[in-house]
Amino acid sequence: DAGRRDEVKAAMREAFGAYRTHALGHDELAPRARTGRDDFGGIGATLIDSLDTLHIMGLRAEFDEALRYLKKPGSAFRDLVQGETDRDVSVFETNIRVLGGLLAAHDLSGDADVLELAESIAARLSAAFDTPSGVPHSFVNVKTGNSFGLPWTKGASILADFGSMHLEWATLSARTKNPVYEAHTNHVFETVSSLGRRGKSGASTKGLFSAHFNVDTGEFAGGDVTFGALGDSFYEYLIKCWRSLGDLKDAETWREMFDEAMLGMKTSLLRDWKTDEATGEKYSYVSPIGGSGAGSMEHLACFVPGMLVLGAAEAPTPTTADEYVQIAKDIARTCVEMYSSQPCGLSADHVRFDSGSKTISNINGKNIQRPETVESLFYLYRKTGDEIYRTQAWKIFQSMKSAYRVPESGGWQGVLDVSKTPTAGDDKMQSFFLAETLKYLYLIFTDSDTMHLDEWVFNTEAHPLRITKARERLN
């Protein structure tokens, strides 16, 4: 599907070009103001997040130029990774965007200097693991090594944050032949799995975990049980680490925890919204336990179908595999309707489902260019070859183009309220729009040999890491 693929590539070229012109080196572009913004502490988020997307799309001149900029002595980024800048950064965001982005750029290009930068940033983040439990704090100062938790969680760390690091850190250890990185995150996994086995996961359903963790006592500290913002990527990394780290310690524990979590999700979080009378097709969603979330789903949870597709490969039984793919289709159907039901064709960030009236109402009507739905459509297309997923993705891309694009700068911005047309923009081009949303939209229109899923694993920021020493495939 070369025509559609090329249109997505043109969008990437334009969006990255606007960033390069108006915000180079900053975290993100404000497309209307035509300036940079540094919401992540000035870690060059968009630049690093874009590297592998540029490479995959064959935009090599832009890729090479971006690498030269990052490697330049005295660049703001080099100062940051070498600990010369007094700055607090999010351990999670820096891990998935910067460490993940640099590792992917290295795996795609073989550039040794990039690996060195990756190791430097990991060394800065390592100080966050210096807690009584060894589970990292949420923030760390890259110069002083002082680390701390979030005020609104009363200092607790978040499951999705500390639970989404092993893929990057184990890959870094494999590439540098230095086991120290992997040891940090493996300890975190052992802590979590041990609490789970002993029934101390903070959740009433086996296989699920509460979102908050006290790093001082080493215990879960309540908080919602969710596949939305605070829990999502922990569950995703259970299957991704198992699939892609061939030398994974306790590999079968990772797989068992994933399958237990999926069973827990099915029994406690999965809800049916409606059934199509004509086709008998189900529309399902994943709702959190606790808080005001019942009957609702965040757009973030639309990653679940993609995760289930990965889990279907080498599932414990053929029945489990079929069930995973079926649930994936049922949730994806709902996610697509979250787009098609809005006047601008874009999903709200958080919605409530009414099974009686079969309607969707918006809890938070903004759309910030999130990737999860097109990500799941990509995995479903790769699994089934059903053209419906390409058709749906293309429709979403067309809606994005008409609502996001800022012609004056060439940047693309999010939408403040999807229920209003014409849409008003938020003047922020998310770095994950270039890292994830455009990458998955591009890949859905390629053949399956491009970034083949038996050779590459995408981290939760869509950075592809080469599968290391893959276990002998069981099937």
Automatic annotation (TrEMBL):
Which terms are listed as keywords in the entry?
A: Calcium, Disulfide bond, Glycosidase, Hydrolase, Metal-binding
* EC numbers, comma separated: 3.2.1.-
Recorded GO cellular component terms are: endoplasmic reticulum; Golgi membrane
- Taken from the UniProt record, the cysteine pairs bridged by disulfide bonds within this chain are C302-C335
GO MF terms, alphabetically ordered: calcium ion binding; mannosyl-oligosaccharide 1,2-alpha-mannosidase activity
- Write down the superkingdom of origin: Eukaryota
**InterPro entries in UniProt:** 6hp_glycosidase-like_sf, Glyco_hydro_47, Glycosyl_Hydrolase_47, Seven-hairpin_glycosidases
Question: What's the cofactor?
Answer: Ca(2+)
| Pathway membership, UniProt | Protein modification; protein glycosylation
A Gene Ontology annotation in the biological process aspect, one of them, is: carbohydrate metabolic process
Task: Summarize where Ca(2+) binds, as residue positions.
Answer: T460
Sorted alphabetically, which Pfam families does this protein's record hold?
Answer: Glyco_hydro_47
Instruction: State if Hydrolase is listed as a keyword.
Output: yes
Similarity section: Belongs to the glycosyl hydrolase 47 family.
Protein name as it appears in the record:
alpha-1,2-Mannosidase
Specify the taxonomic lineage.
Answer: Eukaryota, Viridiplantae, Chlorophyta, Mamiellophyceae, Mamiellales
